Amino acid sequence: MFKFLKGVVGGSGTGPKDLPYNIGEPYPAAWGSWTHHRGTSKEDGSSVSIFSLSVSSSQDGHLAAGRNGVKRLRTVRHPNILSFLHSTEAEISDGSTMKQTIYIVTEPVMPLSEKIKELNLTGTQRDEYFAWGLHQISKAVSFLNNDCKLVHGNVCLASVVVTPTLDWKLHAFDVLSEFDGNSEASNSAMLQYEWLIGSQYKPMELVKSDWGSIRKSPPWAIDSWGLGCLIYELFSGMKLSKTEELRNTSFIPKSLLPDYQRLLSSTPSRRLNPLKLIDNSEYFHNKLVETIQFMEILNLKDSVEKDSFFRKLPNLAEQLPRQIVLKKLLPLLSSALEFGSAAAPALNALLKMGSWLSTEEFNIKVLPTIVKLFASNDRAIRVALLQHIDQFGESLSSQIVDEQVFPHVANGFADTSAFLRELTLKSMLVLAPKLSQRTISGSLLKYLSKLQVDEEPAIRTNTTILLGNIASYLNDATRKRVLINAFTVRALRDTFSPARAAGIMALSATISYYDMTEISTRILPNIVVLTSDPDGDVRTKAFQAIDQFLFIAKQHHEKLITGDTNETAGAGVPSIAGNASLLGWAMSSLTLKGKASEHGSLASANATTTPDLTISNPSSGSYADTASSAVNISDQPRPSSPTSTDGGWGEADSGLLQEDHDSDKEGWDDIEPLEEQKLPSLASIQAAQQRPVVPQKSQNTSLSQPKTAATRVSKAADEDDLWGPVAVPAPRTVPHTVNVQPAAPKEADGLWGSIAVAPPKTTSRPLKTKASAALDDSDPWAAIAAPPPTTKARPLSLGRGRGTKPASARLGAQRIDRNSSGS
C-alpha cells in the first residue's frame, strides 16, 4: 500500500537526476517546512518554481502531510490556485544520513511577501492592488469552501504566491481536507495535521480542538478567519505573531473594516462567507478591479460595451499602477486582440501601454501580437494598424516586414476604400526601407504604378511624394527605369495641380540620381512647360526647379570646358568661344560615327531644338526619310534609353516622348547612354538654316539658298562650310561600320541627294522574266515600261514601283491580246 501511494505521489522520476528541471536559488520565505526554489525546464529553459520538503525519517508527519498536499494540488484546479506541473519523491544523501525529499514543480511564482517589497506600492495604488489580490484569494477560498466542500485550514500571507502577471494564487494544501458536518469520522487531514497550523492563525474553536463546534459551523468558518489574518498581515506589513494583534484595526482601510470584523467574528456561524465578501464589499469596487474583471469576461460583453470600454482604456491606464498595467492588463489586452475578442480601439490602448516598455520588452510582449493582427480580415483593425504604424514600424525587423507584414498590407493597395488605399500608401514610408529589392521591384512598384493613375487625386499626389522619399532605397537600375517616367510622364501632366507640384518637388529631391543627358533632354523640357501653368504654386516650384537643374548643368559645363580644351587643341580643331559654351557638353558626351562636318551639324541641331522633346513635332513623319541620308547611321538600331521602363511606367510614355524613347528594346543594354544620339528631323535642319548667319567669305555662294538642305549635309562641303568651325572633330579610332550595301553615288550638287532615301538592304525576289525583258540603263522609262507582247499573254513581270507586288494576271486582258494578235 505504501509503495502504491509513493508511486502515485512520486510521479515518473526516481531522483533529482531524473527531474526534468534545474533547481535554482531558494527564496528567503516559504510556507511551513517547505523550501521554495527558482527553477528552469531542461527542455526549453522556461521558468518554473520548485518546492521541496525533506525529512530524515519516513515516519515523519511532515512527509505524510506533504504527500497530502501534492495529491490535493494535483487534483484541484482553479485560476486562483497554484498550477501543478510535476512532482517526484527521492532519497537524498545529506552527509551520513539519507533524507526523504518531495519535489513539486509548479508555474513560476514568487512569495507574496517578496513581491510586495519589490513593487513598493503606496497610497491608492497599493490599496487597489491589494484589493485585486484579496479578490482573487477570496474567489479561491470560496471555490474550496462552497463548491468543493473543502477546508484549506491555513490561509495566511505565507500561503499566497504571485505569478509574473501579478496574479495571486493560493497554495500550501498540506492540511486541506473534506468537510462533512454530518460525519464524526476522525481520519480527516484537518484532524491529523492541524498541528502544522501556527497557533496565531487558528480560530478559537480550533485552538480548543472543539471538533463538535467545528462540524456544526459552516464550511467557510475556519478559512474566513484565515482571510482576516491575511488582511491584517497585508496592511500592517508585519507577520502575525499572536492572535491578539488582530484587534488592532488602525491599518485596515475604512471601506474594508466592517467586512474585516465580520471575518474575525468570535462566533463561527456568523463569520462572513467569502462569496459575499466578493459580491458585497465596497472595498473591491475600484478602477483596477473593475477593469481587470471586464477584461476577463470580455467574450460575454456586446460590441457597444467593448467599444466604450476600449475608448476609455488609454486614459484609464494612466491612473492605474504602472507595473500592474504592464504585467497584467497588457497580456490580457494582447490575448484579446490576438483571438479577436477585442475591438479595433483596443489597439490604441495596446500601443500606449507598449510605449511604457523598454525596446526589448516591447519586441517580446507587443510586437508578436501586432504582426499577427496584420493578417486580420477586420478592416477596422487594419485601419488602426496603418494609422499607428509610425509607433511600432521601427521595431519591425526587415525579415518580418518582407515575409509577414507586407504581403498582408499590400492588399490595401487594391481595396475599394480610398481611405484604406491612402493609408496603405503612407505606410510604405515606414515599411519600404525594410523591404528587399526583389519585393520593391516585383511588387511595390507595380502597386505604385497603378496608384499614380488612381481616381483619387490625393492618392496620385501622395504616390509621387512617396516615390521621391523612397528613391534612395531603390537600386540604380530601378531608379533609371522608374523615376523620370513616374515624375515627368505622369506627375507633371496630372490634371490635379498639387500632383504636378509634387512631381516638381520629387524631381528636385532626387536630382542626384540623374545624369546630364537626362536632365537636359527629359527633365528640363518637361519642367519648362510648367512655367506657364495656371496654378501659381506650380509655376513657382517650376522656376525653382529650373534654377536647380540649370545650376547643375552650368557646373557640368564648366567641368567639361577644361577637359575639352585640351582635347580639341590636341586634335587641331579650331575652337570658337561663342560656340564652345553652347556645345561643350554635347561634344564630350555624344559620339557619332561619320564625318566631322556631320557631327557639327547634328550637334548644332540638337542644341537649338531641345524643347522639341516636350511638344508634338508636326514633321515627325519625315524623321525616317531624313535619317536615312546619313552615312553608316541610317541602318543602325538606336541604343535603348537609360530610363526605359518595363515595370509599370513603360506604358505611360505618351506620344510626346515617342520620338526619343520608342526604341527601348532588350538586347541594347550594352550600349553606353553617352553614345545615344538621334538624327535630327528635316524640320530641325531647316529651322537651323533659317537662323541669320553672317558669311565669313564672300566666295561662299552656297549660302544664297538658306532653306536648301543640301548646303548643310552635302559630302562635298569644303572649309567654307557654315558649320565647319564648330564641327565635332573626327573620332580618333575608326568605328566599325555597319555591314550595309553602299548607296549609289550621288552628284555633289544634287538638290535632294543629301536627304534621299537610302537603297534597301535587301530587294524582293525578281519575277520570272525572260532575257529579252532586261532593262536598258540608258532608257529612263525602262523601269516602268511594259514588256513587249508575245504569242502567249503573260502577267506583267515588273510593277510600277520599287518594292511593290506584281499585278496579278487578269482573264480579260488575255482575251484582248488574243484578238489584237488575230487582227
UniProtKB/TrEMBL annotation:
Its keywords, alphabetically, are: Kinase, Transferase
Protein name in the entry: Protein tyrosine kinase
Q: Where is the composition biased (Polar residues)?
A: 604-646, 696-708
Q: Which InterPro entries match?
A: ARM-like, ARM-type_fold, CIK-Related_Protein, HEAT_type_2, Kinase-like_dom_sf, Prot_kinase_dom
Question: Which residues does the annotated region (Disordered) include?
Answer: 604-668, 687-739, 756-823
Positions with biased composition (Basic and acidic residues): 658-668
Residue stretches making up the Protein kinase domain:
1-284
The GO molecular function terms of this record are: ATP binding; protein kinase activity
